[in-house]
Amino acid sequence: MTRNTAREIAIHLSYELNFTDKTVEELLQSRLTPESFSRLATEDALYQESPNAKQAAYIRALVGGVAEHAAELDGYIAKYAVGWNFARIPLVASAIMRVAMYEILYMPEIPNGAAINEAVEIAKKYETPETVKFMNGILGSFVRQEVSQ
């Protein structure tokens, strides 16, 4: 499993948190198992391979960090979503941007450009070209204004 695949799985799990009453830890415990991956592999090739310990730790760090910092990350999305009401932003797009912003703010080993590029590439699978462009603009503005000072 590549880091990009692990990142995309973290986005799926971050998105799923919007629709469950499970805690982050309960969700991770139930989803990061070989049995869960085996079930999901029939629906999505992303789950063909279970994560190793390092990949599972990365997924856990992303999902847990995004959940812990959700209000902060959503504040940044709202701040840079010029002309958009936060409630209008698709939940998948929000999950993708939260993960990228979390990586940028809290995982210094991941270059900002890589976090943005991976977010945009993943978004292309799930969102319209207009939404992908919008997301790229938000993430670029976020890095220029909040990080590159």
What attributes does this structure have?
single chain, 149 residues, mainly alpha, N-utilizing Substance Protein B Homolog, Chain A, 8 helices, 72% helix
Query: By CATH's scheme, which homologous superfamily applies?
Result: NusB-like
The poorly predicted ranges are none
Instruction: Spell out the helices and strands N to C.
Output: HHHHHHHH
User: Which word captures the global form?
Assistant: globular
State which percent range the strand residues make up: under 5%
- Determine the fraction of residues in helical runs and give it as a percent range: over 70%
The level-1 CATH class: Mainly Alpha
Tally the structural domains. Answer: 1
Question: What does the largest sheet look like?
Answer: none
How many helical stretches?
Answer: 8
Class based on secondary structure composition and strand pairing: mainly alpha
CATH topology: N-utilizing Substance Protein B Homolog, Chain A
What distance lies between the first and last C-alpha atoms, to the nearest angstrom? 35 Å
Q: Could you tell me the radius of gyration in angstroms?
A: 15 Å
The number of E-state strands comes to 0
Pfam family, one: NusB
Protein name: Transcription antitermination protein NusB
Domain NusB/RsmB/TIM44: 5-144
GO biological process, one term: DNA-templated transcription termination
